[in-house]
Specification:
The chain is of the alpha/beta class. Helices cover 15% and strands 20% of the residues. It is built from four helices and nine strands, in the order H-H-E-H-E-E-E-H-E-E-E-E-E.
Length: 169
């Protein structure tokens, strides 16, 4: 099965779209490099299994950040066995809240009366992007570039590696 296979097989897409399915066989993997080597002013939209999205992210590091887009429906939001609780501190008010292992920063802040923007809540859209001022984030999004990760976090999915994370809220 392949989403939109019939639509992209239509005559108007002839020569413009390449459909490839490896049936889960690594020996039949598609060589992405010839397609991704030169950005050519294009935008790239990627959705699929985590392995594919990681490969595309690795091969598009030289593309403009705004030209590469990911859609992930479950991967970033999955709880991990090694998740631990941490404290999130709000720099502007000094308030602090405990974020349990199974909770998101966004959910905890909302439960405590903060109205914050969000959309996908899976770390793919960028709507909940928030500056942090202290602590060590555990970035789990598919949006932020390495440069942006130095002072921003996606509060819908990312967590803290340190015991406390201070947000510019």
């Amino acid at each position: 099965m392949m989403a939109f296979r019939d639509e992209f097989s239509a005559p108007e897409f002839a020569g413009k779209v390449v459909l490839h399915h490896d049936d889960g066989d690594p020996a039949q993997a598609y060589d992405l490099w010839p397609v991704l080597e030169e950005p050519r002013g294009a935008h790239l939209y990627c959705c699929g299994p985590r392995g594919l999205m990681d490969a595309v992210r690795d091969m598009t590091g030289h593309w403009p950040d705004a030209a590469v887009h990911f859609e992930d429906f479950v991967g970033a939001t999955a709880n991990r066995a090694d998740d631990t609780a941490f404290t999130v501190r709000l720099a502007r008010s000094g308030k602090q809240f405990e974020v349990a292992a199974g909770a998101s920063i966004l959910d905890v802040l909302r439960k405590n009366g903060h109205v914050l923007p969000s959309s996908c809540e899976s770390g793919t859209c960028g709507t909940c992007r928030t500056r942090f001022t202290a602590g060590e984030p555990d970035h789990r999004d598919l949006v932020l570039s390495d440069r942006e990760k130095q002072n921003e976090i996606m509060i819908c999915v990312s967590r803290s590696k340190s015991g406390e994370l201070t947000l510019d809220i």
